[in-house]
Amino acid sequence: SIFFEVDGPYRAMILPASKEEGKKLKKRYAVFNFDGTLAELKGFEVKRRGELELIKIFQSSVFEAFLKGQTLEECYAAVAKVADYWLDVLYSKAANMPDSELFELIAENRSMSRKLDDYGNQKSTSISTARRLAEFLGDQMVKDTGLACRFIISKKPEGSPVTERAVPLAIFQAEPTIRRHYLKKWLKVSDASNLDIRDILDWEYYVERLGGCIQ
């Protein structure tokens, strides 16, 4: 059971189900006013800092679709249309999207709560990103707390855990020779001269992340 204090009257309240039976539900809900505006939104990634941008954009566009249609089936069809659009973007490897938009879409932002040295041998995507930032920008860049880590997940080196496949977004703005040198090193490839961002990305990882959110 989930208990709510509601003022109302409201037009609708959207509650997600659990993905697995018997798993506890987080308190998440979207409550709509009669004019279609959100009265309340709780527990969704769209409100969090440091989430995958794609998921935040998907969520900000999907909620209003729940108000469409006259039947439950029509409502779900409207919601599915939004989900299909973003899945198509991933399945097509963002074919019709400029690189700058693609970077925004698949970038993930995390802040380091402590200094990099304080983490010791711990592993995470943000720690890997910070270490790699230090490699090509210098240690002084990562000496303070609160470092903002923006990264993408690459599909190479294949078979490595996700934590070791985080690539700092900043490398793509670096000089071509520097970019090639570090991408070659981090991705463990013999030649990085013709690497396009679309060849680097782990598309399956992003489909899985969005798929979980859609579910």
From TrEMBL:
EC numbers: 2.7.7.7
Lineage top rank: taxon: Eukaryota
Annotated GO MF terms: 4 iron, 4 sulfur cluster binding; DNA binding; DNA-directed DNA polymerase activity; single-stranded DNA 3'-5' DNA exonuclease activity; zinc ion binding
InterPro entries: DNA/RNA_pol_sf, DNA_pol_B_thumb, POL2, POL2_thumb
Subcellular location: Nucleus
Keyword check for Metal-binding: yes
Family that this chain belongs to: Belongs to the DNA polymerase type-B family.
Top EC class, one word: transferase
Name the record gives this protein: DNA polymerase epsilon catalytic subunit
Residues in DNA polymerase epsilon ,catalytic subunit A thumb domain copies: 48-215
Function statement: DNA polymerase II participates in chromosomal DNA replication.
Entry GO CC: epsilon DNA polymerase complex
Alphabetical keyword list: 4Fe-4S, DNA replication, DNA-binding, DNA-directed DNA polymerase, Iron, Iron-sulfur, Metal-binding, Nucleotidyltransferase, Nucleus, Transferase, Zinc, Zinc-finger
Catalytic activity: DNA(n) + a 2'-deoxyribonucleoside 5'-triphosphate = DNA(n+1) + diphosphate
Listed GO biological process terms: base-excision repair, gap-filling; DNA replication proofreading; leading strand elongation; mitotic cell cycle; nucleotide-excision repair, DNA gap filling
Named cofactor requirement(s): [4Fe-4S] cluster
Annotated gene: ORF11923
Chief site of localization: nucleus
